[in-house]
Amino acid sequence: MTVEKYALVDCNNFYVSCERVFNPKLAGKPVVVLSNNDGCVVARSNEAKAIGVKMGVPYFKVAHLEKEQGLIARSSNYPLYGDMSARVMRILSQYAPRQEVYSIDECFLLVGGMSEFENTAREIRATVQQSLGLPICVGIAPTKTLAKLSNAVAKSTGSLGGVFDYASVSETKQTRILRAIPVRDVWGVGRKLAEKFIAMGITTALDLRESDAEQMGKQFSVVTKRTITELRGTPCVGMEAMGEARKHIVSSRSFGRAVYTLEELEEAVTAYASKACEKLRRDQSVAGEISVVIRTSAYADDSFAQSGEVVFDSATDDTMVIVRHAMQALRDAYKPGYAYQKAGVTLGRVTPREGRQISLFSQPEQNEKSEKMMKALDAANAKWGRGTIFLAGEGVEKSWKMKAEHKSPAYTSSWLELPRVRTY
């Protein structure tokens, strides 16, 4: 009988690490990555943590540390991070029969039956470091919940070399590890649930493991029961299917400044709809409806939000068709006189492109022309960088776009932003 075993592979300080790959001068310095519009801290280097920068803090509250402590800020560069993530996941997929991408910087590997995976994990670390320059840690355990905790141990204990196999230590050592982990850090235990557990005297992962699984399941949920069972070493949460089709695709951003005119909103919504269409075609899907939401600041005295929706005659992935419907939805939602801070586009009724139903009135030659045009558009942007070819309706200046005053180049996805090497 094969014993189930899981490995959680996690990239360390992923956003910051991606920035450091292409700018080695950032190594060893306190670095933070900021959210959209350079608002809050969403990633920190260990050095930034050491000088007291908290996750989620508004950047203006810690900007003084630039002069006082040498803090360096970078705007979010999601094209770079997404591409680096894809490269990491491709490497990891070669080391196990099943892989579940859990987030942009984490994935589970099913490694049950693979002997001495700890040695393989060290090989994985070396390969990712050499190929991409990114540091990773690996936690190995008989359940996914314990694999998450083992990864945290691997990351926080320097002597382990970034790899920890929970089953390789004695039960006494396992007990000590779980006793040192706060219950709020257990996978699946959120802040509110942790507060309830603490009120009951359950303050550590060990306390939760030793609690009555049946009673806790009745009092809270079946998820709590599964978590306790997994802490005891019995797997309850299996590997999820990869590539499950999305039902909705959302593209939404805050503006860099207040937007008042319909013309600027049209530019932004065109850009967001175009991006959503790229995701749609990448998934080989088509959409049957679109909704557009525009809103002011939630803190404004005259706070306002409105949406418009259009259902298509037939499902499509054609950017120009979808943008035309988006403009109709926007005009239905727009009211003059408001300072708009955000717009968003949602594609709904998303289904696989293969087997889609064609409208009775659609013309085959138009469908063929649309398909060729979208393929050419995607191919050009894939080769030369996103935004090389775009709809004129997106505008050129885009004065409304979100702030990104500290953004690094898209080193891996745009020919125009490749690193340049000077020779003397």
Can I get a quick summary?
The chain is α+β, with helices and mostly antiparallel strands and 424 residues long. The chain has helices at 14-22, 46-50, 65-69, 78-92, 117-132, 144-156, 171-180, 191-199, 205-210, 213-219, 222-231, 262-282, 319-333, 364-384; strands at residues 6-11, 31-34, 41-44, 72-75, 98-103, 106-110, 136-141, 163-165, 249-259, 285-296, 305-316, 340-348, 351-352. The longest helix is centred in the middle third of the chain and has 21 residues, at 262-282.
Which characteristics define this entry?
424 residues, alpha+beta, five-stranded mixed β-sheet, 14 helices, 13 strands, 20% strand
Describe this structure in words.
Helix content is 38%, strand content 20%. The chain contains 14 helices and 13 strands. Strands 5-6-1-7-8 form a 5-stranded mixed β-sheet. Strand 10 (285-296) and strand 11 form a beta hairpin. It starts with 5 loop residues before the first strand and ends in a 40-residue tail after the last helix.
